[in-house]
């Protein structure tokens, strides 16, 4: 936000300077150095405004995409953590549930965002996989023997989510 203010102030300053040169050139009679026609002033301002607005629009879109990309990276990073499916102690179970909830929340934030219509299919798939994983973990977290036997099921969820996150990274910048 601060950067937008600085850019806006610089933009207004340049516009005022152009107008000052134009006014000076209209009222001065001696020097030809600052002589500028009204058409040149209007052309210069038009180019300045178009350049500014096009570059700012692309910059804002790029920032939004970068934020989404960072959030996807954070989800991917959390999914591969070993704490995600710990079941040894009550504290481990609590941390695993908390981490799973955090991942689900970030996925919902992404789903509600306006960015990434190209990645909606992958996002819905990941949301479904996380929900299955959470249900599976919640149903069996107190059965240590079953959790040991089912570690491959958890790995399947983790690999599927991580792979879809990689695909989302690629699709964001297409």
Features:
80% helix, 6 helices, single chain, mainly alpha, 174 residues
In short:
The chain has 174 residues and is mainly α. The protein is 80% helix and 0% strand.
> Distance between the terminal alpha carbons, to the nearest Å?
27 Å
Strand-residue proportion: under 5%
**Structural classification:** mainly alpha
The count of strands amounts to 0
Enumerate the spans where pLDDT stays under 50 for 5 or more consecutive residues. Answer: none
Order of helices and strands: HHHHHH
Give me the number of helical elements: 6
Cα gyration radius (Å):
28 Å
Percent helix: over 70%
Shape annotation:
rod-shaped
| Average of per-residue pLDDT values | 84
Largest sheet: none
Polypeptide structure, described:
With 174 residues, this protein is mainly α. It is 80% helix and 0% strand. It has helices at residues 2-27, 38-79, 90-112, 120-140, 144-149, 151-172. It starts with a helix and ends with a helix. The mean pLDDT is 84.
What is the fold's blueprint, element by element?
Blueprint: H1 2-27, H2 38-79, H3 90-112, H4 120-140, H5 144-149, H6 151-172
Helix pairs in contact: 1-2, 2-3, 2-6, 3-4, 4-6
């Amino acid at each position: 936000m601060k950067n937008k203010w600085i850019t806006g102030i610089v933009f207004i300053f340049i516009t005022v300077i152009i107008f000052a040169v134009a006014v000076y050139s209209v009222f001065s009679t001696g020097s030809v150095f600052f002589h500028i026609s009204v058409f040149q002033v209007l052309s210069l301002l038009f180019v300045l405004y178009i350049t500014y607005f096009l570059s700012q629009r692309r910059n804002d879109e790029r920032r939004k995409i970068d934020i989404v990309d960072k959030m996807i990276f954070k989800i991917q990073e959390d999914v591969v953590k070993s704490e995600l499916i710990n079941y040894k102690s009550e504290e481990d179970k609590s941390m695993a549930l908390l981490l799973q909830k955090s991942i689900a929340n970030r996925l919902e934030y992404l789903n509600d965002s306006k960015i990434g219509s190209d990645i909606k299919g992958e996002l819905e798939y990941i949301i479904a996989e996380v929900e299955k994983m959470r249900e599976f973990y919640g149903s069996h977290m107190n059965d240590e023997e079953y959790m040991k036997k089912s570690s491959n099921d958890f790995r399947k969820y983790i690999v599927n989510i991580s792979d879809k996150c990689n695909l989302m990274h690629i699709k964001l910048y297409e």
